[in-house]
Amino acid sequence: MIPFADLLWVAWYAAVAAAVVAVVGLVLLHALRGRSMAVQLAVVGVATVLATVSGIVVITLMMYLDAHDRSVALAVVIAAGTVAMGVSVLLGRRLVAANRMLVDAVRADPYRPPEGRLPAELAELARELDAAYGRLAAAHEREQALEASRRELVAWVSHDLRTPLAGMRAMAEALEDEVVSDPETVRAYHGRIRQEIDRLTGMVDDLFELSRIHAGALRLYRRRVGLDDLVAEAVEGTEPLARAKGVQLNGRAREGLPLEVDAAELGRALRNLVVNAIRHTPSDGTVEVVGGVEDGMACVTVSDACGGIPEDDLPRVFDVAFRGETARTPGGGGAGLGLAIARGIVEAHAGKIGVTNAETGCRFMIRLPLAP
């Protein structure tokens, strides 16, 4: 039996020999860190075999084995090391092939997940890449839709600005050239010019509001208000328009429902919906504004008697500059921003807005979180 002290010396010299080989291997790995993974695995395999061989050599020398026993031990170690190196090379080739498969998938246009079986880490990377490409595709689609809506908005605004400007120019030239001189006609022209200026001012305000919403610069000054107060103010502010058109406007809301909102901005969104409903309801129709609670959230519905919206147009009602066949935006020839602004304001309050067809018309719905 070998004395314990001799075993310690054997272990010490074997560890020193293996450490020397390991240091050399680490230096090689550092130098080859930019090379293929198969090359690095081959270096690891060679270093492992050499470390084992050096340990066996130290042991055989210290134990004074004869040449035959030393040759047998070295042959066994070298054979095992050769197999280990072969396995390392095969593993490296497999990793390289899997990596090449992943690179080809990334370079493909459009990206397609690799069809072959990948190691767990590369498979996870492929799934993450698939999800990232999905997010990029969705963002690209949103960008294209936004760009299309912007082009459409520019076209609508150009048209809607040109018409009142041409009218005001004609009336101003008539007044300047004294083509009209009787006081009544002059007063009527002045009134028309003032109306067109007010209309253009409203369009500019809407454009500014929408630009703030799209830029994320809409600042909300929240305070606690009651849902019934918001509904009452919206009905009161649009009552003259309903009366002038002969539309019956009814509003009611459950009392005691607190909201933490910007009353001015949210009131504007609600008025846009009510004005939109009044403008598209016949003179003998009714517009209902109802506030309550549904599924733990404050809910305001604006129902009109417009006859409904084509099902294909419902998803686009709140898009910028969308008008559809019946110009479903407040302003009667405006830039088509009222409903888009309403959606932006509601979503800025962490709420949701939608529209569905009802029996006699449409039902617009706003959902908002209740204040604690």
Short structural summary:
This protein has 372 residues and is of the alpha+beta class.
Structure keywords:
single chain; alpha+beta; Heat Shock Protein 90; five-stranded mixed β-sheet; 7 strands; elongated; transmembrane helix; phosphoprotein; BphY/WalK/GraS-like
Please, could you describe this protein's structure?
The structure is a single chain. With 372 residues, the chain is of the alpha+beta class. The protein folds into three domains: 4-118; 144-214, Signal transduction histidine kinase, dimerisation/phosphotransfer (DHp) domain (Helix Hairpins); 223-369, Histidine kinase-like ATPase, C-terminal domain (Heat Shock Protein 90, 2-Layer Sandwich). The chain is 62% helix and 12% strand. It is built from eight helices and seven strands, in the order αααααβαββαββαββ. It has helices at residues 4-31, 37-62, 67-107, 120-176, 183-214, 227-245, 263-279, 338-348; strands at 223-226, 248-253, 258-261, 286-294, 297-303, 352-357, 362-369. A five-stranded mixed β-sheet has the order 2-4-5-7-6. It has a two-stranded antiparallel ribbon with strand order 1-3. Helix 2 runs antiparallel to helix 3, helix 4 (120-176) runs antiparallel to helix 5 (183-214) and helix 6 runs parallel beside helix 7. The longest helix has 57 residues, at 120-176. It starts with a helix and ends with a strand. Pfam families: HATPase_c, HisKA. One of its GO terms (cellular component) is plasma membrane. GO terms for molecular function: phosphoprotein phosphatase activity; phosphorelay sensor kinase activity.
